[in-house]
Amino acid sequence: MAGTGDVVVLLHSSVGDRRMWDPQWQALLDAGYRVMRCDFRGYGETPAPLQPNNDADDVLALLDEVGIERATVVGSSYGGRVALELAARWPGRVDALVLLSAGSPAHEPTEELDAFDEAEEALIDADDLDGAVDLNVRTWLGPDASEDTRQKVRVMQRHAYEVQLAVDEEFDQLEVEVDLGAIESRALVVAGKHDLGYFRQVATDLADRLPRARLVELPWAGHLPSLERPDETTELIVKFLAERDG
């Protein structure tokens, strides 16, 4: 956490950790925000859970611990799902949402997404972590991602596997019923043309369902636009925040 001013919380994808926000970090500080990014349990520097947990609960507890009453929450993929749950369960704590290729607690996975999960699990069960990492890089990064970006995702994903496999048992998230209709904050919903159909459909539905949402479709993007074209995505985020401030 660094900076002063209104708070922006960055929640990472499940194929990364808080390092995925390196391209946005300094730009948001320079724009005058107090910026916080964290690792979910089992990612980055946070150990895997030893019992069932809920990541939205964890984020709320972190906000409470550092004395943050309200924040804009920027979530990528799984981080977007957590951001939606946070805003729905505690609407008074979220000023605004930026949802980059977000998952959703209110949308069932598609056959395409289930097939990816099965392929990843089979590679992990076969102790082929390199193959599982490559599967993630192929699936989640669009055509504009540089080789440096692909390598960064490889490093973060491989580290996540190592952290999660270091415990004897994998625990599921504690499920909480989430009513997206309770969300009060305005939202920028971002979708990538080259992303899986599930995430494009979620974006379209969220833009229709949330009363203060705006949909932006990026013709060049895969699933991780903040890494694929970081400057353009950062500009999109900063402009949205400035509109709120105005």
Description of the structure:
- With about 250 residues, the chain is α/β, with parallel strands linked by helices.
- It has 9 helices and 6 strands, in the order βαβαβαβαααβαβαα.
- Helix 7 links the parallel strand 5 and strand 6 (about 215-220).
- The chain is globular.
Topology:
Elements: E1 7-11, H1 22-30, E2 34-37, H2 55-66, E3 71-76, H3 78-89, E4 94-100, H4 111-125, H5 129-140, H6 147-165, E5 186-192, H7 197-209, E6 213-218, H8 225-228, H9 230-245
Helix pairs in contact: 1-9, 2-3, 4-5, 5-6
InterPro entries: AB_hydrolase_1, AB_hydrolase_fold, AB_hydrolase_sf, Epox_hydrolase-like
Keywords: Hydrolase
Domain AB hydrolase-1: 7-230
CATH topology: Rossmann fold
The low-confidence runs, each spanning 5 or more residues with pLDDT under 50, are none
Q: Number of DSSP helices? A: 9
Level-2 CATH architecture? 3-Layer(aba) Sandwich
Oligomer status = single chain
C-alpha geometry: globular
Radius of gyration: 17 Å
Main beta-sheet annotation: 6 strands, parallel
Integer tally of domains: 1
Rounded mean pLDDT score: 96
Give the H and E element order.
EHEHEHEHHHEHEHH
CATH class: Alpha Beta
CATH superfamily: Alpha/Beta hydrolase fold, catalytic domain
Terminus-to-terminus distance = 24 Å
Q: How large a portion of the residues is in β-strands, by DSSP E?
A: 5-15%
Q: State the total count of DSSP E strands.
A: 6
Describe the strand arrangement of the main beta sheet, using strand numbers.
Answer: 2-1-3-4-5-6
Estimate percent helicity. Answer: 40-55%
SS-derived structural category: alpha/beta
